[in-house]
Amino acid sequence: MYCRLKSIVHPGEWKGIMDKNNVATTNKLLRVPEFASALSIQPKTVWAWIGARKIAVHRIGRCVRIPASEVQRILDEGCQPALEIR
After folding, report:
1. pLDDT tens string 73-86
2. DSSP conformation class of 83
3. Which sequence spans correspond to the domains of the chain?
4. 54-61 contacts at long range (C-beta below 8 A, 24 or more positions apart)
5. Which CATH architecture does the domain made up of 23-78 adopt?
6. Which member of 63, 65, 69, 86 lies 3.0 to 4.6 Å from 24 by CB, making a disulfide possible if both were Cys?
7. d(CA 85, CA 22)
8. Contact indicator for 26, 17 with CB cutoff of 8 Å
């Protein structure tokens, strides 16, 4: 059974929800494939993160939506400073 909600963010509109500093500027909700494409990962990885409760989700009936702000949080969490070159 598929969710009947329309896509909230279309693939071409992703740039519209990020400001010039790559920070999410809205409270838009993303579908799993949209979230995965924003991070250049596979949707099955996103489903694994949802199952492990590593990302916040909103459940609307059987539909799962992820806040766009989670993209920035994941990027900030995974960012490691570069090593100094001697």
Report:
1. 998 888 777 777 77
2. P
3. 23-78
4. 58/29, 60/3, 60/5, 61/3
5. Orthogonal Bundle (1.10)
6. 69
7. 27
8. yes
